[in-house]
Each structure stands twice: as structure tokens, then as C-alpha cells.
Amino acid sequence: MSLFWIVIRQLAEIQAMATSKKVITRVDWEKKLNDVKVRKEDMNKLVMNFLVTEGYVEAAEKFRLESGTEPDIDLATITDRMAVKKAVQSGNVEDAIEKVNDLNPEILDTNPQLFFHLQQQRLIELIRNGKVEEALEFAQEELAPRGEENQGFLEELERTVALLAFEDVSNCPVGELLDISQRLKTASEVNAAILTSQSHEKDPKLPSLLKMLIWVQAQLDEKASYPRINDLSTAVLEDPAV
Amino acid sequence: MPTSATSNHPSRPEDLIGRLNSPHTPYEAKLKALRDLKNQIIGNRTKKLAFLKLGAVPSVVSILSSAAAAQGGGGDNREFYESVLIQSAAAIGSFACGLDAGVKAVLDAGAFPLLLSLISHLNEKVADAGARSLKLIYQSKRAPKYDFLQQKNMEFLLSLLNSKNENVTGLGANIITHSCQTTAEQQALSEAGVIKRLVSLLGGSINQKDASLESLAAMVKENPEVSSKFMAPENGRALNVVIELMKDKHPRTRLLACMCLISIRNTSTSYLQDSGIKNTLVLVLLELLDDAGPVGDEAPFVLSSLITEKEDMQKIAFNANLIEKLCEHLNAGSYQAKRLQGIFLVLGDLCSKLECCRDRVLDLQVLNFVTEALAHDSAEVRTAACNFLKNVSRSVKNLSAGQFMNEAVAVPLIQLLCDASTSVQIAALGAISNVVVDFMAHKSVFVQCGGVKQLVQLSKSMESAIRVNAVWALRNLTFLVSYRCKEEILLELTSATLISLINDPEPSVQGQALALVRNLVDGTLNSINYVFGEDGAVLHAIARQLRSSSKVEVQIQGMYTLSNVASGNEIHKEAVMNQLLPQAGNDAEKTLVKFLQSTDSRLRTATLWALVNLTFPGSPGACRRVTELRNAGIITQLKNMVNDHCLDVKLRARMALGQLMIFGDSSS
């Protein structure tokens, strides 16, 4: 049985628990879990929602063919969005900007924070490629005005420009800006903005379910001792401390 | 990573525009230049301004125009022309986005009709581009006014709202939100069935919900008829839908739902008055304050519209710990001007009537933030901080405790008296007027900081609003103030200025000036002597104004002033007597009697006090004055007032009559 099933059942079971504190053995618990009914269609929708929101187009297509689940957005629009995300993740920020503007010119015009982060990423990429002169020019021409237009960006701006001051960039205090994680962060921000502009939820439903599980287990911890899921990735039921 | 010369060195604006304008540039290159331009300006205010200055807009619009014309020809190049339409429309929209100068340039270049023609294009991307750009234009104050009252315009608007294209419906809603201003327009829209369509959009996508909520709010604002139409059964349970939207996942939707409900609430007092909805509105908005983005910036303004002038709402907000929340935000550090303005606006509203709010605010040390706010770059923040101060200093308890009369408050306030913005000056004057009513007489702080000089300067302003507030502030400053302070004030003010204020063309200024003199002569004999100096010119001015003015406020203050003077020594009493009953003239007698017969009990009371002081038995000349008054027929008049329905009047009339009778007995 898939981990997903287990997690969902766990959640449903706990939510139905009585209020007095007691000890529940694994045998009893698993029996209760087996009684919980979860529909396959609901699970499929959750999976599809996740694939679509995160932008896994091919996987979504395949899943649609194999499970018969219909996505709630037009898969064609996902392709455009994914092209943007991919461009950022590869460090082709200028390309990403052009694509976003083709998709919807309003997004960057009405999202100063996002625009700033994209420009910031461009600067980071220039520095990463050792193009110091160009980076300086870019910082002056493109980033400084952002700081002027909006004082809230000054701190970030200073941090980024600080990269230029260090010989060994990967070991300096602001070196984390060069991490791939920074690219992913920016890519995620762009993704969310595009989804919002298309009137779609920017967050998939699955994380919310998991959060609910964690919270609900914490609530139940105060009242009972029972087999918990401590590792979401394995969804293994661990026996109670008793 | 592949690079090319063009991608690392963006073309200079001049080059791009040159290429756009030149007839020699091949069309494909023009398209590329257009796209390039568009990508340079989107999100970049600085670049937009740079391109604007170089005249980019007319160039782009002319390309749009020729593409639109060439389109009609059809054929192979259709796709190409459509790309040109999309890129040029997008560029124009970007120029208009959030930039008034851009909107002006775009409209001046004649883009509007061209964009309109794009909306009905078969290619959805072209329609989108046109609709988006028009929407951005309509979000500006400079947008052309949409004439809803013309039939074909209304039909066009309805066609927009009924479109399947989300950008086009969004445009329709935006036009309503920004252009609908008069009752007639609201009525016309309502009659055309717009409400129904907007209500159906409430069930659409996020963007449609938001756009619709804003339009509905604009339509019902201050219009009870349209408001009730909105709630009529034919619109389904529209109100309930909006109420539900207060719990929507999206912060902006929640905010707009609140705004819409508040609009209805403020328009018709018969709806949305139950405590459940009142509480929910406060709680939802309270939580939205925490949003880091534009929603959090807007939330205080929406809150203000909910609670302003409404004591019950302020109480609910107080109980929900709104003040604590606002303080949290102030403590969190430097915010953008808009949010700071919003916070002080709401704090001002909360402190406008409720003492508990003022106490809480002061307990939480909000005054520590006021000093900085008073010196903020933004005029709106400065104004909001002043208004907040004005309201919180209505707390008599805290005024008496001297909470406000210190340098941290006085110095920045006084500086604002020279502010470049008139509205800031007036707001500062309002705050000063309250803050100087300090019973602990720490007013010297204010005087020392140069406040009097500034106030006197402003009392000579060309703007009557500033004059009246400046004199009001001076009036409050002189209330119960020490003799030394009075000296300093009068030295700065000079009798000449005082007289010209008493004779000011505006009755409101006259009234405040007279009240100022009243305060100046209130107290010891020295005060009276000092004000009236050698020639009694001021007294003369007062009496003249009393005779000529028809405004009761002026008459009351004038009479009290004379009454205060008449409480002095023999010389003072005689002086007043001479002004009230000069040897020549029936006019004067009539004035006294006229005042005693006034329908305003305050004026009757003031006049009686003057008489009481003039006929005070202890003073030597009392007898003579009584005779004069008697000859002027005052006794008869007084006898008519002994049973006046106003207690104050009744008591003073009897007192005056009693005093007059004392002398009557012995001199008959």
C-alpha cells in the first residue's frame, strides 16, 4: 500500500479519536486505520494537483493518460510557465524575464519584489561567471535604481553587491547567494506569481494535508499514546513510547 | 551559457527609438526593437521615465496604428502583424502602469481608440493585450472619464462584462471601479442590470472576484437605492456571498469583501448592523494588518472607513486589542510611508472619542513614535501624525498630567508650522490647539521653542483656514496662562495685529480673535491694563465689531471680553460703559437690549454677566452707571428675564436686577 494511503488514513483516524487520554496498541490502531475509507479519485486529484502546480508537465500528461484524472488547468499553460521556471533554474534570467513578459506583461510590472529578485539573480549570475566589469555596470544601471525606487530593497541590494568585494566568492559571508538554492528560490517565486496571475492557487494541496497531519498528531499527543508517523517520507508507524 | 552581444548590453534607448522611427528599418527589426523596448521598461520605473523623455510613446503608438491599419489587408503577414499589435499594446500598457506621466503620454498620443479596437480581435492574445493596457490606463486618475449615461457606452460596457475573456471582463469592472462617481451613474449602471452580472462574477476566478468586489463597492457607495437593489432577492443571496468571501483564502479578496460590506454598511444604516458582522469585520481586518504586501498597506485605510466617527465600532476594535496590534507594527520598525500613514490614521480614529483608547495608546508609549513621524518625508504621514496627536490630546486627564507639553512633541510640531504643505500646517495647528490647553501651565516650553512667533506669523496668512486655526491655537495657548506668558504673547502679537484680527473679513477669525482677547484679559488687573494700554484702541475695535457683526459666536466672545474688562477697576468699568452706551445714539441702547433678547441663551448669559460686573455694588461709580442703564430701559428688559427657561440666564438676570434695585431704592 502506498505511503500516501497510510498518511491519509492516519490523518482521518486521528481526527476521529475520542477525547480521553489512553494508550492505543499498534494492533488496535491498525485495525482502526483499516476501517477508514479514502477514495481513489480524491487521491488522484491530489496527485494531479501537485504535479500541475509544481509544473511537471510530462508527468501530469502521463498521469492523466494512465489514471484518467483530469487536471484543473489547461496543460498548455503549464508549458509556458515551466519554460520560465527552467530558465531561472539554469541561470538564464534574461530569457526568463522575456518569457514572463510574453506570458503576461503585468506580472513584473506589478510585482516590484519579484522583479527585484530577478534582477538580483542576473547580477549573481554575472558574478558567478566572473564578468566583474559587466556586473558592476549592471549593478549601477539596473539594480541601484530599484533601491532608489524602493527603500525596502536596499539591504538585499547591499548584500548582493558585497559579492563583488570578495576575491573568493564562495567562501564569503554572502556566499550563499551563489548557491543553486538561491536560483530555486527565485524560480519558485516566479512560478507562484504566474499561477496567481492565471487565477490559480499557487500552493498545491498536498503540503496542507501533511501540515494538518503533523498538527493533529501534536494535538492527539496530549491525550493519547498511539503509533505515530514521525517520518513523512516513509510514513512508517512508530510504536508509542509506552 | 550562450551569450550574445545584444543580451549583455541592452540597446540604448536612443538607438531603439531611432530604429522604431526610421522608415528604413525592416519591419522584422522593428518588431524586435519593440519587444526589446518592452522588456526594458517592464517593472523599471527609471527606464520608463527615460524612454518617455525621449518621446518613445508616440513612436510606439504610430507603429500600433499602422499595424492595425495593415491588418485589414489580411494575408500571410497576419501572424506578423498580430505580433506587432501584441508587443506595441503591451509596451503602451507598461508605460501606463502606475505612472501618471506615462498615462498622459499614452493618451496624448492617441492610443486609446486603437487599444479599444483590439479588444474584439479574434486572436485572444491580441484582445488580452488591448484589454490589459486599457485596464492599466483606467487605474490612473488621468484616465478619460467614462460616460456611463450614454446608451451606446453602457451597451459597450455590458459587452465587456459579458465577455468570456477574463481580461476583458476585468477591464469592464475596472472602468466601473474607477470611473463611476455620481449617484446618477450608479443609478444608470444599476438599471442596466450590471449588478446581476457582477454578482455572477463573484463566483468566478480569483481575479474576477476581486475585480467584481471593487466594482460593487463603487456602485453602492453612498447610494441607499442601489444598495438595497444589491440586496434584493433577484440578485440571489449576493450579500451572503460577499460575507462568505471575507473568509476567502486570498488576502486581497478578504480585504475587498470587507471594503464592499463597509461600503454598504456606511450607506444604509439598516443593513449589517448586528454584532456578529461588526466583530467579524474588525477581526478580519485586524488579521490582514499582518500581511507584508500591499494588502497590509491598504488594510488600515479600510479599517478607518469602518470605525471613523462610530463609537460602537471603536469600542469593538479596542476590545479586540487593535491598539496592541498597531503598536506591534510600529515597534517592528520602519515601514513604507503608506503603512505608517495608515497606522496613525487608525490610531487617530480610535482616540477621537474614547478615553479608554487614549489611555491605552499612551500606556503603550506610542508617543515615542510620534516625534519621528512628525518629521517624516511624506506629507501624508506628517498630517496623520498631527491628527492623531490632536485626538489623543483630547484626554483632559493626560493633558493635565502634562503628557504632551514637552520638547519631543513641541519642537517638531512647531517646525511643521513652516511646512511646505498647507494641509500639514493646518493639521499641526489643530494638534497645537489641543496640546497647549495644558492645565499644568507648562506652556513656557512651547513659548521657548519659538511657537508663539510661528503662530503669530501664520495668523497673518492669506489663507483663512490657516488664519483661523492659528488664532485658535493662540487662544488656547492663552487659556489660564501666566501673566508673564501673556506679556510675551502680546509682545509678539502686538495690538495692531490683534485689532486687524478682530476686524478680519472672516467671521470665524473674528470669533477666535475675540476669544483670544477674552483669555488675555481673564485674570488680574494687570492683564486688563496690559491689553488695553494707553489708547483703548482694542476695546474700541471690539465694541465696533459687536455692533456690526451678525454672527452670534462673535457677539458672545465680544460680550464676554467686555464682561471680563468690566470686572476690573473703575476706569475699566467706565471704559466699557462708554462703549456700550455712548452719549450719542440710540443704536447702542438697542444693541444691549437686542442682545438681551437674543434667542441664543449663551449670548443672553454673556450680556448679563457684563451688566452684573458693571453694576457691582462695591465700586464707586456703580450708582451713576445704574442710572444710565435704567434710563436705557434695561430694568424693564431684565424683569422679563427673571423666569427665563435657561437656568444660567435666570440666575444672572435676577442677580443683575437685584444689584440695579439696590441703587434704585436709594436714588428715587
TrEMBL record, chain A:
Chain ranges of the CTLH domain: 77-134
Pfam families: CTLH, LisH
InterPro entries noted in UniProt: CRA_dom (IPR013144), CTLH/CRA (IPR024964), CTLH_C (IPR006595), LisH (IPR006594), Ubq-SigPath_Reg (IPR050618)
Alphabetized SMART domains for the sequence: CRA, CTLH, LisH
Protein name: Protein GID8
From TrEMBL, chain B:
Record-level GO cellular component terms: cytoplasm; GID complex; nucleus
PANTHER family: ARMADILLO REPEAT-CONTAINING PROTEIN 8
Biased composition (Polar residues): 1-10
Compartments where found: Cytoplasm; Nucleus
Name of the molecule in the record: Armadillo repeat-containing protein 8
Pfam families: Arm
SUPFAM superfamilies noted in UniProt: ARM repeat
Start-end of each ARM repeat: 450-478
One GO-annotated biological process of the protein: proteasome-mediated ubiquitin-dependent protein catabolic process
Keyword terms of this UniProt record: Cytoplasm, Nucleus, Repeat
Region of interest (Disordered), residue spans: 1-21
Domain of life: Eukaryota
UniProt KW Ribosomal protein keyword: no
PROSITE patterns hit by this protein: ARM_REPEAT
InterPro entries noted in UniProt: ARM-like (IPR011989), ARM-type_fold (IPR016024), Armadillo (IPR000225), ARMC8/Vid28 (IPR038739)
Major subcellular location class: cytoplasm
